[in-house]
DNA-binding protein HU-beta
Amino acid sequence: MKKQDFIKAVADSANVSQSTASDCFDAVVGTITDSLKSGEKLTFVGFGTFAVKERAARQGRNPRTGETIEIKAAKIPSFKAGKALKDAVN
């Protein structure tokens, strides 16, 4: 499902216009992004948890040349599905 398909489905489900659903979607994604940027963890009971994980610096290999390269430490967003979501999928 693409973003536009999702927005149309939400608009139909909530009985609102697609522009309103699009604005709401953008607001939700923006709020999640801002919260993760500031280091907060978001938990939606039954759906899942968004968090930021730290990935340590490490050495890797360039597959083309075999040369060893340094990979910098990074913060990565993660999502862990909640029980209700897992049960719905299975």
Observations:
- The first helix runs from residue 3 to 14.
- The beta strands are 42-44, 48-55, 58-61, 68-71, 74-81.
- The chain has two domains: 1-40, 41-89.
- Residues 1-40 form one domain.
